[in-house]
Structure of Putative lipoprotein:
Amino acid sequence: MDTGHESANSFAKSFVLILVLAFGLVGCSSTKVAYRYADWGIVWWVEDYVSLTADQKQQLNNDIAQLRQWHCSAELPRYQAWLDELESDVSNNPPDQATVEYHQQQLFSFFPSLLERATPVATNLLSSLSDEQVQELADNMAQSQREMEEEFLADSPEATAEARADRTAERVERWLGELNSEQRNIVRQWSANRGAQTEIWLQGRRNWQVALLEILEGRDEPTFEAELEYLILNSEEVRGEAYKAMMAESRVAMASLMHDLILAGDNTTLAHLQNRAVELNNDFEALTCSPA
């Protein structure tokens, strides 16, 4: 249940996570529409950071089409099996803490294979950039970082925590429906206990951007592909020890939050969660894989 971590990332990691969101359990009002038009959305998002040539766009579209074909045939059945299990586990009684943790782990388990498959797409694109495009990318990443700091860091720690609570509640409500007053208080307390999570996340994001720009200097070198792969697949290591520790604590805290929110709800909470699983499952079932 993707409710937690503030998960916008730097260019190549963000690019791969855009693929994850586009091909995965997206929060869009229409999963089918988002999935079918993922290629257009990804190219549009990339060009927010760097202007592409016609050849680069064509290569990116071809790579995304191949990735989507693999994902549709190999990964969507795994999502459906998990959603069947989730639907069953919440059909009668509120799940216990262990069950919530299990389903959180199931969701996280979908990401590594997609990240691995998507990394060559990012490699093809980034290795083709000119010096001018790399500079454009660096300028736009810096601008994006400034904007995110302005958006997520309020005038005081208390205001930052309150804004984090609002974002968390919005994400949670996709799965649990509208929160009652007790549930909203739980979210506010949970957010207040996250300490400097937002600041650590933003610093980790900046660390990753610096590392990306460093290896882009050697994008013509034979080691570039391996270096970029490490940067994407070992993102938490690159972002620093504080970030790594924060993410480990955050996963545990999020599972506890979801369990507490379910217990503080009523039958409509479980019904909404079950219906959300059914809705996503139906969307995935309706998607057909085009021939490779």
Summary: Residues 53-287 form one domain. Confidence is low (pLDDT under 50) at residues 1-29. The radius of gyration is 20 Å. The longest helix spans residues 54-89.
